[in-house]
Amino acid sequence: MKQCHDILREMREDRDLKQSEIAERINTSQQQYSKYETGESELPLRALAVLADFYGVSADYLIGRKDDTSGVPGLDKKVTKEVKLKDMISDILSLGAAGRAAVLEQIYLQRIKIEYEAMKKKDGARP
Predict the structure, then answer these.
(1) 106/75 Cα distance (integer angstroms)
(2) How far is Cα of residue 68 from the mean position of the Cα atoms in its chain?
(3) What residue spans define the domains of the chain?
(4) Mean pLDDT of successive 10-residue segments in the chain (127 residues)?
(5) Phi-psi region of 109 (alpha: psi -120 to 50; beta: other; left: phi over 0)
């Protein structure tokens, strides 16, 4: 599992944020926040709670105790015979911002295609 300082850096970089922006959010200096990201200092509980809320993840995720980013039910559900939903999400989260955007675009396009096919089928069934 990843360590807290690695997760903090990845979460910030994935959102194209500066250390100073995050430091301001948790009421500390950029220099001190940098120490959290390098592992030189431990993140205080108050800051952990603020960052978990800000990033929309659990505190357990930020400190490296959970692989998934939330307590969403159904993550262990298999999407296919071999692949679980949480594994797909983990793969997507491991991508950079551009990769995640490309995946979301494909999902959106596929949804439009499915909805279009359903409408076409529904209209074709009418007398």
Answers:
(1) 21
(2) 8
(3) 4-62, 95-125
(4) 88 90 95 96 93 86 73 60 73 82 91 91 71
(5) alpha
